[in-house]
Amino acid sequence: MGPSSAIPVVCALIERDGLLLIAQRPANKHLALQWEFPGGKVEPGERPEAAIVREIKEELGCDILITRALPRFTHAYAVVIEMIPFVCRLVPGSPEPRPLEHVALQWVTPAALPAFDLAPADLPVIASYT
Fold first, then answer.
1. How far apart are CA 19 and CA 115, in angstroms?
2. HSE-up of 109 (CA within 13 Å, CB side)?
3. What is the C-alpha to C-alpha distance for residues 8 and 84, in angstroms, rounded to an integer?
4. Is residue 2 in a domain?
5. Angstrom distance (rounded) from CA 65 to CA 54
6. Would 37 be classed as within a structural domain?
7. I need a labelling partner for 78 at 20 to 30 A (CA). Which of 29, 105, 120, 122 fits?
8. Whether residue 3 has pLDDT greater than 60
9. In terms of residue numbers, what domain contains 56?
């Protein structure tokens, strides 16, 4: 586990046909218009695995299955977060992901990720994924 002061945050690398789903943050939020792997904060007493399923349902309106976890790490923004990444896929029959809390979604190849302005905490996630 990371330091107890770190805020636990989950993110999903949703895979489909060799592509990963990235989401663009709203203009009025921290890291405005940067791209990220969708996810969010783990609620008190919630398991990270439950948090990522809930967050993706809230943010994208779709259902995911976790296929594997990636290494956790801490990242310092104005606050320190503990990033907990999961590689996932859509559940068969899930609704198509929709940008309910983002301005855009895009399916990209892992090789294309460096071309996007990604949130800084997502860069180590890519390194551990590839």
1. 15
2. 2
3. 7
4. no
5. 11
6. yes
7. 105
8. no
9. 7-129
Number of other residues whose CB lies within 10 A of the CB of residue 49: 14
In a domain, 33, yes or no: yes
Contacts 24+ apart (CB under 8 A), 43-48: 48/8, 48/10, 48/84, 48/86
Q: 123: which residues sit within 8 A by CB, 6+ positions away?
A: none
Single-letter amino acid code for the residue at 63: D
Structure tokens at 75: 């990242």
Q: What per-residue string of b and e applies to 97-125 under the rule 16 or more CB within 10 Å gives b?
A: bebebbeebeeeeeeebeeeebbebbebb
Q: pLDDT over 70 for what percent of the chain?
A: 97
CATH number at residue 29: 3.90.79.10
Average pLDDT over residues 5-15: 96
Question: Rounded to an integer, what distance in angstroms lies between the CA atom of residue 56 and that of residue 28?
Answer: 20
Q: What is the number of domains present in the chain?
A: 1
Three-state DSSP at 56 gives: helix
What is d(CA 122, CA 35) in angstroms, rounded to the nearest whole number? 9
Would 16 be classed as within a structural domain? yes
